[in-house]
Amino acid sequence: MRIMERTFREQLFFLVLCLSVLKGDSRYIENNEISKDELFSFLNSQLRRDIPEELMYRRPLRCLDMVAVEGQFTFTAERPQLSCAAFFMAEPDEVITVDYDSVDIDCRGGDFITVFDGWVMKGEKFPSSQDHQLAPHERYVDYCDSGSARRSVRSSQNVAMIFFRIHNAGSSFTLTLRKHINPFPCNVISQSPEGSYTMVSPQQHRNCSFSIIYPVEIDISEFSLGHFNNFPKRSAPGCGESGDYVQLLGGNGIDTSKLLPITDLCISFIGPTHMKIGCDNTVVRMVSSGKFVSRVSFSYRLLDSQELQTIKLNNVEDFCFNN
């Protein structure tokens, strides 16, 4: 996948993303003074994988943080920190492992560190519960519950996060973030508002989503369905009945099950299909029965302010602005 150079707008978006992290469950947002220059300088890092231990990238972890590079990160509480979260992100064809190096917290006193397989924001999850292979409760791995039995936690897609609460000043923990190639990516959040991608379902009964958390124009250049052994291409009268189709979704949250359907594709084609979507989140979702090998290729680019204004004035396509 080719990903275009990060933009200033992307940096501002991730700042807003962090500031709108999950509310509820006794967790709240603090007035945490995070420098956006420090927060996003890591997105363009060219650090090599498999760096020797003595050359491993290290820095402190903040109470509210975004991490997009491999390295070792240490959080030390200077005061009680009761509602903290760190978002981890890799490239679309990668998964993430979180390794606990050292932990000095008071589990009996109410401290916790919990890794979540995906992202949670405003009570919504990515991937949605419908599209993830694990049950919702299995996606949370709490250090205080698992202890030394789970010193390493691996994500199922290119994003993961941790929640943590620490009551006593001086308590700390250190973790190492590593990335690994995923030969069959499923459920991806794009780091960039511009790029191209090909999603393949390799004869597996699962649903996969590619989430672009920007308003974009999307061009679907190819959709092939049913190329498995001697099975022919299929076209069904209704996509929902076919069991194998692609959805284009839009909305302002990250849970794909709560987004609005824009169009469904269930007939193979080659040729550009253009669409401008003014939502905060545009998703290409592939639904697969497991009987066929399906493939969809698309490219996307960020909409400019004039294009967004035009969409906003269009009564047919303004649902994203009212959602």
UniProtKB/TrEMBL annotation:
Corticotropin-releasing factor binding protein N-terminal domain mapped to chain residues: 56-180
The name this protein goes by in its record: Corticotropin-releasing factor-binding protein
Keyword DNA damage part of the UniProt annotation: no
GO cellular component, one term: extracellular space
Key word NAD present: no
Signal sequence bounds: 1-26
Protein family membership: Belongs to the CRF-binding protein family.
Limits of the Corticotropin-releasing factor binding protein C-terminal domain: 188-309
Organism listed in the record: Collichthys lucidus (Big head croaker)
Disulphide linkage map: C63-C84, C107-C144, C186-C208, C239-C266, C279-C320
Keywords: Disulfide bond, Glycoprotein, Secreted, Signal
Function: Binds CRF and inactivates it. May prevent inappropriate pituitary-adrenal stimulation in pregnancy.
Compartments reported by the entry: Secreted
Family matches, as Pfam families: CRF-BP_C (PF23541), CRF-BP_N (PF05428)
InterPro entries, per database record: CRF-bd, CRF-BP_C, CRF-BP_N, Sperma_CUB_dom_sf
Single GO MF descriptor: corticotropin-releasing hormone binding
One GO-annotated biological process of the protein: negative regulation of corticotropin secretion
